[in-house]
Amino acid sequence: MANQIQPEDPLIPHPLPPEDFNRRELPILTSQGTWYRLNAVEFSSSLYFDRTGKGRFDSPAQGYGILYVGADVYASWIECYGRTHGAKGISELGLRLRDLYAIDSRRPLVFADLTGSNLVKMGADARLSSGAYTVARQWAQAIYDHPQLVDGIRYRSRHDDERYCYGIFDRCAQDIQEQNLGNLLTSNPRLLAEILDYYDYGLL
Question: Taking the model in full, what pTM does it have?
Answer without folding.
Answer: 0.91
